[in-house]
Design a protein that fits this description.
Elements (H helix, E strand, L loop, with lengths): L6 E5 L2 E5 L5 H8 L5 E6 L2 E3 L11 E6 L4 H20 L4 E2 L9 E6 L6 H16 L5 E5 L1 H10 L3 H12 L5 E6 L2 E4 L13 E11 L8 E10 L2 H15 L3 H7 L3 E2 L9 E2 L1 H20 L2 E3 L5 E3 H7 L1 H5 L4 E5 L2 E5 L4 H9 L10 E5 L2 E3 L15 E11 L4 H19 L4 E6 L9 H17 L5 E3 L9 E7 L5 E10 L32 E2 L5 E2 L2 E10 H12 L12 E5 L5 H13 L4 E3 L6 H10 L4 E5 L1 H6 L1 E6 L5 E5 H13 L5 H11 L5
Parallel strand pairs: 1-5, 15-19, 22-23, 29-30, 29-31
Antiparallel strand pairs: 1-2, 3-4, 3-5, 6-7, 7-12, 8-9, 9-10, 11-12, 13-14, 16-18, 17-18, 19-21, 20-21, 21-28, 22-24, 24-25, 25-28, 26-27, 31-32, 32-33
The structure holds one RNA strand.
RNA sequence: GCUGCUGUAGCUCAGCUGGUAGAGCACCUCCUUGGUAAGGAGGAGGUCAUGGGUUCGAGUCCCAUCAGCAGCUCCA
């Protein structure tokens, strides 16, 4: 083969003939994306457009603005920021600085505490470097050279990374340089700093090196970047709007709940919040009745002996509240499972009794670390829609499917579209045989597939006693919260045969008690005792967290069945207050939550108040309505007015509640259809 | 728990380099009897998170504590 013969290459999925020694830039031009090309990739590595396409590559990728560009831009912005920081504080050392979903950050080790003012200074310095139009250049070094280079710059964190990568088998260490700043980095990057025009730094916070609590804490400087100033502004605007959905803000505005210094992290639910809370409970109890659940109530405070037996004392003590009675140490329960095991044991059980689906809504208390608290999403006192299913081994899959079907019903009722499902498998520290684990994981995976759910496997993240399925929902600011959970538990039902092979945490192996859990059994068809399997499951997760999620999901505009105030009657003048009261009474008698606003304000003002309170139905009544025994309805999310007879409004609203209808728009449509011809 | 930031009326916030508190909304009273997103006038309301300290004097400066916010960590 002659040296100058062209070679075939697949670039971005298209076949291309390239000259030997051609650069990624040339390939980009040949593809017609020369102007928007940012970087190249081949053989699992990133390159600049000026780099030659590696000889051995038969495929290559050109990253462009549209093709993975934002991540490239942001990663470059993090380098740009690091270089600006280095100019301002030459002693700064760096951890890692990746792009993220919404922007980028760089972790900095610097004795000087970076303030908000400093962020502006850094931004100004970044602008300078942008105007310098500094090229990003790539180079490759051997391990020795790489370590030498980072050590010469006193970058010990980078050295640690290099050593780790070397231990992982890496032999080529790439560096990216722009201006006077060089960084150990995989890339890719934009061609030059001039690309990074729309960039903004947001905040600085602490962050442990490599995410380990014992490690030194670096300063994480966070920001974001876009290709255009317009996109950046839009992004900032979106964030502002998302903040208006924050359940903490809406919870206060809508008078749903509050927090008080006297009980940090434990919510006070106001009357309106309790209405939502109780409607959710009613929904679940309805479903429990249909699905063969039984509800129980176990004590809130139990002797520590019990928590020793359950393993909570050894594994969960840090998160428990303790108290005492006379000389007996007791604990406030953080979970329901031990109580349910005790109820199970209260009498002999037969295989005919199983499955037992035992539900409980009791409040739980967990002493969460102060920094983890977050509105209703993470609290120290809450109730789960908890249940423990005691079943036979052969009922396991069916029961898991039963739970998933239930969960789907619940999430459909709320209209959740983006639920992330994770299957967490056997962790390093685990109890039980390999076969048991494989069986359990298989059962869960099988059930997920049968249920048609897309899921991600989260290897090694299961509980030590069994694998689990978690359901995550994101909040207004895209933070992910675990809501539903489904866990297989072989631990709590176990008896004296249980040994603390790795899972026992701080338990003393000498203690026989610690080595026996609840020793649950049922009498099988064979007249022999058998061990039941326990499924621990919650669908909403905690009522508190779910209410927080729902507030953000609907921006406070609850569907009719959950709305604290379902209708507000506004008499147009004092003369019609008595008819307004009649309407209120009729609604009340129909089981609906209604009020009259007879404050001495103009109708416009009272309509505004009702809209801001997100009341689903605003009913204006005056002379016409009083005579016709009708109401003029203004449904939420529609300014359209519809005249309805009082009786047909009630009929509609009751149906909407009974079916737990979702969208306010749906009710608007049905109202339109039912609209009496207005005179 | 860690790092940083914040804490002024019920809510949202103003209060310059220290000279002992202000607005809008909400609330109350009166006027207005109003037909779909803010009618008008007046009034009341604050141990400036708490506790120390510096100072002739602290909302303002310093320290501690408490709580919240962002991120990290944690989340059986």
């Amino acid at each position: 083969m002659s040296v100058d013969s062209k070679r075939a290459l697949v670039v971005n999925g298209k076949k291309l003939e390239v000259e030997p020694g051609a650069t990624f830039g040339k390939a980009a031009q040949a593809l017609g994306v020369g102007k928007i090309a940012l970087a190249g990739r081949a053989l699992g590595r990133s390159y600049t457009l000026d780099d030659k396409i590696p000889e051995g590559a038969s495929e290559a990728e050109i990253l462009t603005k549209e093709r993975g560009g934002l991540a490239v831009l942001r990663h470059s912005a993090s380098h740009l920021m690091a270089s600006a920081i280095k100019r301002l504080w030459p002693e700064a050392r760096f951890g890692t600085g990746p792009d993220t979903e919404k922007g980028f950050y760089y972790d900095v080790d610097l004795a000087h505490r970076i303030s908000d003012e400093d962020l502006r200074k850094i931004e100004a310095e970044m602008k300078k470097i942008v105007s310098e139009d500094a090229k990003f250049e790539r180079s490759e070094l051997s391990r020795e050279e790489a370590e030498k280079l980072v050590l010469s710059k006193n970058e010990s964190f980078k050295q640690e990374l290099i050593r780790d990568h070397a231990a992982g088998g890496e032999t080529v260490f790439s560096f990216y340089k722009h201006s006077d700043f060089v960084d150990y980095c995989e890339g890719p990057h934009v061609p030059s700093t001039a690309w990074i025009k729309a960039v903004k730094l947001h905040d600085v916070s602490g962050s442990y090196w490599r995410g380990k609590e014992g490690n030194p804490q670096l300063q994480r400087v966070r920001g974001t970047a876009f290709f255009s100033e317009k996109d950046l502004q839009q992004h900032e605007k979106n964030i502002e709007e998302a903040k208006n959905r924050d359940h903490r803000k809406l919870g206060q505005q809508l008078d749903l709940f509050s927090f008080n210094d006297f009980a940090p992290g434990i919510p006070f639910f106001h009357p309106r919040g309790v209405t939502v809370y109780n409607e959710l409970l009613a929904f679940l109890r309805d479903e429990y009745r249909k699905r063969g659940y039984v509800e129980v109530r176990a004590p809130l405070v139990l002797k520590v002996d019990l928590w020793h037996r359950s393993g909570h004392y050894a594994n969960y003590r840090e998160n428990m509240f303790f108290t005492q009675s006379e000389d007996v140490e007791m604990a406030v329960k953080p979970m329901n499972c031990p109580g349910h095991c005790l109820i199970f044991k209260e009498r002999p059980r037969s295989y005919r009794d199983l499955p037992i689906r035992m539900a409980e809504f009791s409040p739980l208390h967990r002493n969460e670390r102060s920094g983890t608290l977050h509105g209703l999403m993470r609290v120290r006192g809450f109730s789960q829609d908890d249940a423990h299913i005691f079943c036979r081994e052969d009922q396991l899959e069916q029961e898991v499917l039963h739970c998933i079907a239930f969960l789907k019903k619940v999430y459909d009722t709320f209209g959740f579209k983006d639920v992330k499902v994770e299957l967490s498998t056997r962790p390093e520290k685990s109890i039980g045989t390999k076969e048991l684990w494989q069986k359990a994981e298989g059962a869960l995976e099988n059930a997920l597939n049968k249920a048609g759910l897309n899921f991600r496997i989260n290897a090694g993240d299961g509980a030590f006693y069994g694998p689990k399925i978690d359901f995550h929902i994101t909040d207004a600011l895209d933070r992910s919260w675990q809501c539903g959970t489904l866990q297989l538990d072989y631990n709590l039902p176990s008896g004296p045969e249980y040994s603390s092979q790795g899972g026992g945490g701080g338990e003393s192996p000498a203690s026989k008690e610690a080595n026996s859990r609840f020793d649950l059994s049922y009498k099988g068809q064979d007249n022999q005792p058998h061990r039941p399997v326990m499924i621990h499951r919650a669908l909403l997760g905690s009522l508190e967290r779910m209410i927080g999620v729902l507030i953000e999901h609907w921006a406070g505009a609850f569907p009719l069945w959950l709305a604290p105030e379902q209708a507000r009657v506004l008499p147009v003048a004092e003369a019609f207050v008595s008819y307004a009261r009649e309407v209120e009474k009729a609604l009340f008698d129909a089981g609906l939550r209604a009020s009259v606003d007879d404050s001495p304000e103009k109708v416009g003002k009272r309509v505004r108040d009702a809209v801001l309170a997100k009341v689903p139905y605003v009913l204006v009544v005056g002379e016409k309505e009083a005579q016709a025994r009708s109401v003029t309805v203004r449904a939420r999310s529609s300014e359209k007015q519809v005249v309805l007879s009082l009786s047909s409004l009630i009929e509609r609203a009751r149906g909407e509640v009974a079916r737990r209808e979702l969208a306010p728009e749906a009710s608007t449509t049905s109202l339109d259809a039912a609209a009496a011809p207005s005179s």
